[in-house]
Design a protein that fits this description.
The protein is built from 25 helices and 9 strands. The chain is α/β, with parallel strands linked by helices and 566 residues long. It starts with a helix and ends with a helix.
């Protein structure tokens, strides 16, 4: 029997546990091939496909790895894999760093828009089709604002005018974009909130949301804000395993496979989060909204021995807080493969290379200086509320299953303290306490901040937010948190390192303020190191060789020394 004939027989015995998608671009009926349909040099491809559907998980993983390492195949051989592989294999290839993008077919053609309709109108209809009852105040706020603004914009456009008015004007002005894009942002913000509810994800999928979001993603390739919110919605939907096959069939994996290879950390991490939620073959954890993987972005043979978590502060973000200190160059010109010269996220670029055995996660949550400019005017989230919310999300991501280092800036350090205190009271969270090896505090106001004092007394901020009020020196909640944490930590076996700024920070164009003074940054545990930078730059090293980064790296290595050796 020829090798080609053997390949055909093997393929016919594979079974059809997952039927191929019904599309003209896929093989109609693999079992109709005869021995002349396959050349001998194509047999490796078919044998790998057979192996990828094995009942043996190790064999399946090996097959995906061998596919991803293929370097000398012809275009049609990649297409064979793309057309014939199952959902599990396709997701695995998308999460393999070396995979060729030819493994991924172009997404199916999108359905035509209805006559006299637009993407904005379709987005509004999708939002209006979702349940509007039994929602928390913030979701109600986003939904009502989005539907109100889209109605006004639609009426204005059909009348030949742009609508710049309405309740969302201050918010719309912040985007600096044309009104239609702004209205789409309102709708997407509301959909992000709805997609946190599993039953609403089902409605989004049933009403054509995956295709509509894909259309918007393609239309707004030059608008990171739009694309980021689309990825957030998709990542939330991917938390629901029964939607995985629909997400894959809609062609999103091809888009994600390209996005995760982006040099832009935000785009890559959002894609990595969604793909990890789709990859039930190798990822037991679930990454909820606001929990982002910085490393590893892909499947890896490197054993992950510890977690390092980055928690930003007031007005911070999961990525921008941890960039390298800015200089006079335009940031848009700095995104290059040589991240040793400049990086928009040093934990991903530097720490991941220096300590590849770490899983590095960055957390994002909404904050505001003033309730006047709050993204959700009805939202009043205290440190206690946010800490419980983040703790739940981090546990879902498997935090606590291995040794942990916490890295925090400003108010983020208060959240870390509160999370550890809350975890200590809950038996199901005990692993987080037992596995915490160390905490790094970058200018954390353990005893209050001048920002809060200035905001309240001088009225620099109109309606200072709850977050700002809680940072005041006379805040009972802050004093209780400090006292409780010191009592909790005194018999715990974890290390502490604190940095504090010595230079003032400009707040706006006229106010210069020392946000966290030396005495407030003194936790009363571990080392406290003053650094000649301002509050914003205390967590932004100038270079990879700078003291701030090297001392941080040394602390992480020392605190995890025994764990990284094992």
């Amino acid at each position: 029997m020829s090798l080609a004939a053997y390949c055909v027989i093997c393929w016919r015995r594979m079974g059809t546990s997952t039927p191929p998608p019904k599309s003209s671009t896929y093989w109609r009926d693999i079992n109709t091939f005869s021995t002349v349909d396959i050349e001998d040099h194509d047999c490796a491809v078919w044998l790998l496909l057979r192996k990828s559907r094995s009942d043996d998980r190790a064999a399946r993983l090996q097959a995906v790895q061998e596919m991803s390492e293929a370097r000398h195949w012809h275009d049609y051989q990649y297409r064979i894999i793309a057309q014939a592989c199952d959902m599990r294999t396709l997701t695995g290839l998308a999460r393999s760093k070396e995979s060729d993008l030819r493994f991924f077919l172009h997404p199916p053609p999108l359905p035509s828009l209805k006559e006299d309709s637009s993407t904005e109108e379709e987005l509004r209809h999708l939002l209006a089709s979702l349940p509007q009852t039994d929602l928390d105040e913030c979701i109600q706020c986003f939904t009502a604002l989005a539907l109100s603004e889209s109605s006004q914009s639609l009426a204005a456009q059909k009348g030949g005018l742009w609508c710049f008015g309405g309740n969302g004007l201050p918010y719309a002005e912040s985007f600096g974009e044309v009104p239609s894009a702004t209205v789409e942002m309102f709708c997407l913000e509301a959909l992000v909130k709805h997609s946190e509810i599993p039953t609403h994800c089902d409605k989004i999928e049933a009403n054509g949301g995956l295709q509509l979001l894909q259309r918007l993603y393609q239309l707004h390739k030059d608008c990171p804000k739009v694309q980021r919110n689309i990825m957030r919605i998709l990542g939330n939907m991917a938390l629901n395993e029964h939607l995985h096959s629909t997400i894959v069939r809609s062609g999103w994996v091809s888009i994600l496979a390209e996005a995760v290879k982006s040099q832009h950390v935000m785009e890559a991490s959002h894609a990595a989060r969604t793909l990890a939620n789709l990859d039930r073959e190798t990822v037991p954890d679930k990454y909820q909204d606001g929990v982002y993987l910085l490393h590893p972005l892909y499947r890896t043979s490197q054993p992950i021995k510890a977690d390092v978590l980055f928690i930003h502060g007031l007005m911070g973000a999961a990525f921008k807080t941890w960039r390298q200190q800015d200089n006079d160059q335009d940031l848009t010109e700095k995104v290059s493969e040589d991240e040793t010269k400049y990086t928009t996220c040093w934990p991903k670029s530097w720490l991941a290379r220096d300590c590849p055995a770490l899983r590095i996660i960055s957390v994002e949550y909404d904050t505001s200086l003033s309730d006047w400019r709050a993204r959700c005017p009805t939202e009043r989230k205290s440190i206690a509320f946010r800490s419980n919310e983040l703790l739940r999300k981090l546990r879902a991501a498997g935090v606590g299953d291995r040794p942990v280092i916490w890295v925090s800036h400003s108010m983020g350090g208060l959240l870390v303290k509160k999370m550890l205190l809350e975890a200590s009271k809950k038996p199901e969270m005990s692993t987080i306490i037992n596995n915490t090896r160390g905490i790094i505090f970058y200018s954390v106001p353990h005893h209050g901040s001048h920002l809060a004092e200035y905001s309240v007394n001088i009225r620099y901020l109109l309606f200072p937010s709850l977050e700002v009020k809680e940072l005041s020196k006379d805040s009972p909640a802050l004093k209780t948190l400090q006292d409780d944490f010191l009592e909790f930590a005194k018999d715990k076996n974890f290390q502490v390192l604190s940095f504090v700024e010595t230079l003032p920070t400009y707040i706006g164009s006229m106010i210069k303020l020392h946000v966290v003074p030396l005495e407030s940054a003194d936790l009363g545990l571990g080392d406290l190191i003053p650094v000649d930078v301002n509050h914003l730059n205390i967590c932004k090293p100038k270079t990879k060789d700078a003291f701030l980064y090297q001392r941080t790296l040394q602390f992480i290595r020392d605190a995890l020394a025994k764990d990284l050796e094992n």
